[in-house]
Amino acid sequence: MQKIxxxxxxxxxxxxxxxxxxxxxxxxxxxxxxxxxxxAEILELCLESPEIKEAVISADITLPDGEGALWAAxxxxxxxxxxxxxxxxxxxxxRRAAECGKSLFLLGGKAGVAEKAAQNIAxxxxxxxxxxxxxxxxERSGAENARVIAQINKSRADILFVCLxxxxxxxxxxxxxxxxxxxxxxxxxxxxxxxxxNVHRAPKLFIKLRTEWLxxxxxxxxxxxxxxxxxxxxxxxxxxxxLQNEV
Length: 247
Ligand code: UDP
Prior knowledge:
Bound molecules: uridine-5'-diphosphate
Number of strands: 8
Radius of gyration: 18 Å
Structural class: alpha/beta
Oligomer: single chain
């Protein structure tokens, strides 16, 4: 499997279908795999925080959800084949899991969000086993953390969606994957709000014009802080290009 290096993070150069095939091969074999979908903001944070970088690179499957990674890969002369949006990846995993009797645990979101997501998922994929759910506001250490992990393992879920927001979810998964039994652990951020119907994906035109980020910014102006990191990210990509050219 070809990997594309963007600021030290190795992306899997896969199509949406190949990403789901790869993830499913782990579910079938039981060999645990963690999936992350870092965007430009997280790539930038990885440069600033070794803890975040360690968490991101400890994943087994790294998918480009966002224009930042795609833009950077192209600039670096190693274009990625396509954007694999985490929310679509999650939907495809649920579709396939429903077909072959695999089960899913939903972790994350505010109180009631996972329940609402589970209801919507159940009506879309009636055959999918949702083995349990828990909100994302718990003490991520000590007894409470252990109780949440025990609940996940007791549910015997094959797949765990972790939606605690980035980079919290990547750090939590890195710290706890050894105690978690699901074969596939996918860090999917705000996808749980989309599955719950609380947040809507951008209209198709925004997705086609590759401006989904702009739609999200218009809907949630507080995201401007994240967008402000983009010039720094672009500067660092240019630095990587320069270093490559010097070799
Ligand atoms: N969240 C959570 N626990 C926390 C912080 C956040 O479960 O301690 C949830 C939050 O309710 C939301 C998701 O994580 O459902 C974060 O979504 P956002 O779109 O901000 O993150 P991103 O997808 O950009 O990582």
